[in-house]
Amino acid sequence: MKKFMALICMIACIFGLTACGSEGTLTDYEQHKVENAQQITRDYLVPMLSQYMDDVRVHDLDEYTAEEVEYMLEAQLGLLVDGYAFKTAIGSFYSAMDSIGMVSELGEISARIEGDQIIVEAEVIGEKKNGTAEVILSNDMFFKMESAALNPKSSLGELMGRAGLNTLIGMGTVFAVLILISGIISCFRFISKLQDNAAKKKAAKEGEVAGVENAVAQILEQEAAAEETDDLELVAVIAAAVAAYQGSASTDGFVVRSIRRR
Q1: Mind listing the pLDDT tens digit for each residue in 128-153?
Q2: Who contacts 143 (Cβ-Cβ below 8 Å, separation ≥6)?
Q3: 2-153 domain in CATH 3.10.450?
């Protein structure tokens, strides 16, 4: 029974949160402003912007400043617009002409209030494909146009193709990075081989240097030993010569103190 009551309480909480998240009902004044925004968008703004989907008209409008555009629209049609926003909106409509074509008529129009703005979305039926015109007006008694843009609608095939292309690009990038990392890792063995070869060459060079030093030391030792042997032989010869000169039979008693080479 307790589990059943807990389940009922949980369901009631879910429905309560859903009710809290829903939009509130518009007042009569807000509804009147929404209807006026829809009418302004349908009867004036979108048709006027659609007329500038032409090279000549866009070129002519470039000669006017934003302030002059505001003045002309207010004087001729009584519309309040932001000059920079209106020229930007014309650029958006002109860019969408290649994919949509010329606008033939308008479809359903919806509007909503978000803070100090009224956002109007109108379905645009074009020669090639449909689109959505989004117009943002000020949420006051003047309904000044603050922004506008025309966005082409993508078909299911185009969306699937774009999603497939994004998937291929993402997977291709991942595989390319993995291949690069694999190549870097495979190069480590060559790096270790190069290090081993360098160490071997260094050891061999050090061994050669040590061998040369040992050979030089041995040669020096041999030369020193040979010089010492030569001196002893020379002493014996001199002693024998002196003994023969004096008629002595042996060299006992003769001591050679030094030898001066001449």
Answers
A1: 888 999 999 999 989 999 999 999 88
A2: 33, 36, 37, 40, 80, 118, 137
A3: yes
